[in-house]
Amino acid sequence: MALRAVSALTWGLGGPGVGPLRSGTFLRCATQHRLEKMPSSIGFPEASRRPFSSHRILVDVDQSHGVATMKLKNPPVNSLSLELLTEFVISWEKLENDKSCRGVILTSNSPKIFSAGLDITDMYGKNAAHYAEFWKAVQEVWLKLYTSNMVVIAAINGSSPAGGCLMSLASDYRIMADNPKYTIGLNETLLGIVAPFWFKDNLVNTIGNRASEHALQRGLLFPPADALKIGLVDQIVPEDKVQSTALSVMSEWLKIPDHARQLTKTMMRKPTADRLLKQREADIQNFVSFISKDSIQKSLHMYLKFLKEREK
Ligand SMILES: CC/C=C\C/C=C\C/C=C\CCC/C=C/C(=O)SCCNC(=O)CCNC(=O)[C@H](O)C(C)(C)COP(=O)(O)OP(=O)(O)OC[C@H]1O[C@@H](n2cnc3c(N)ncnc32)[C@H](O)[C@@H]1OP(=O)(O)O
Predict the structure, then answer these.
(1) From edge to edge, which strands make up the β-sheet containing 151-156?
(2) What single DSSP character describes residue 120?
(3) How many whole angstroms from 117 Cα to the centroid of ligand 1?
(4) CB of 172 within 8 A of CB of 152?
(5) For the segment 267-276, what is each residue's pLDDT rounded down to a tens digit?
(6) What does residue 37 show for φ and ψ, rounded to 5 degrees?
């Protein structure tokens, strides 16, 4: 009972839009008290777990530690379809509105693939209204992730091209499974398409201008060790340690008082998010006209054909 009161006060102080810190020392002690009890593996005690799910998103909230694990579940390759993106936003808002949730670990339910990126079939052979709705959903997911008040850790347990890489980039910290078969990067040019300015901004903010120029123009997909070298991921760990590492990194991040971390995150990220927010509609129109071009549709058709016919 006593612990519950302390936790509620701590989270109340740290939640979004709350007043100034009353006692930094108390907050730190209370937070640490809770975090010391955080398990180093996924085995949350049943009583404090509150799972919820939709067709393509599985969420498990560990209420006693204020950490949710969100898993993408869209077989076979976790492509980011309009349906998945829509369900993602609904689940995300639920977590944002849950004062007890301070951090989210974003991962995949499929072995070997974090996410194959945007669902190409949502960008091919559809009408302008569909493309517009799809792109708005892509923007929304990125904005939610990039500007979240919660600590977001990407536990990248498989390949993560293009849109999958973007979701990782929008997180606060990236941990990738150290398997050379997996790759991560913004490979849009290989499909004959172009990463929009806000994908590019997020990449530049993460790995710098020169490395981004190189990576983006060539559509490079990096194996984990190379991704670590250029700072595209923060840590690589054996495959079976991705989730436990994410939990222990999360416990470190959650030692920082929420309001101070959140204000700092906003200071760092707001200009980039605002750049999209200021021209959101124009960005949608730009996408629709770009993706509707015959030449681009032809490129996507060829790429889908290549994916289906290539040797495995
Ligand atoms: C000045 C600026 C001007 C203009 C800019 C304006 C606007 C911007 C315009 C566009 C921006 C778009 C940004 C796009 C972002 C993206 O994310 S595009 C998607 C890129 N993704 C990829 O390239 C990954 C492709 N997939 C793979 O490499 C592999 O599938 C995999 C490594 C992920 C997994 O490999 P395997 O396990 O071997 O699985 P398969 O390859 O057999 O795949 C199974 C099945 O799934 C289908 N599939 C794979 N990826 C996708 C996908 N992204 N979308 C839809 N479907 C996909 C694949 O074809 C197989 O289908 P079947 O053969 O089973 O039918």
Answers:
(1) 49-53, 57-62, 67-72, 103-108, 151-156, 173-177, 235-237
(2) G
(3) 6
(4) yes
(5) 999 999 999 9
(6) -90, 0
**Strand 103-108 and strand 151-156: pairing?**
parallel
pLDDT tens string 286-310: 999 999 999 999 999 999 999 999 9
Question: Which CATH architecture does the domain made up of 46-283 adopt?
Answer: Alpha-Beta Complex (3.90)
Query: Residue range 45-63: average pLDDT?
Result: 87
Closest CA to 156 of 171, 141, 142, 176: 176
Query: For the whole model, what pTM was predicted?
Result: 0.88
Residue 46 pLDDT level (bands cut at 50, 70, 90): low
How far CA 184 is from CA of 45, 82, 163, 220, 248, in Å, comes to 33, 22, 10, 8, 23
Distance, CA of 130 to CA of 127 (rounded, Å): 5
Of 135, 281, 307, 310, which is best to mutate to test ligand 1, by the most ligand atoms within 8 angstroms of its C-beta? Answer: 307
Give the distance (Å) from ligand 1 centre to CA of residue 280.
Answer: 24
ipTM: 0.98
Q: Per-domain residue ranges for the chain?
A: 46-283
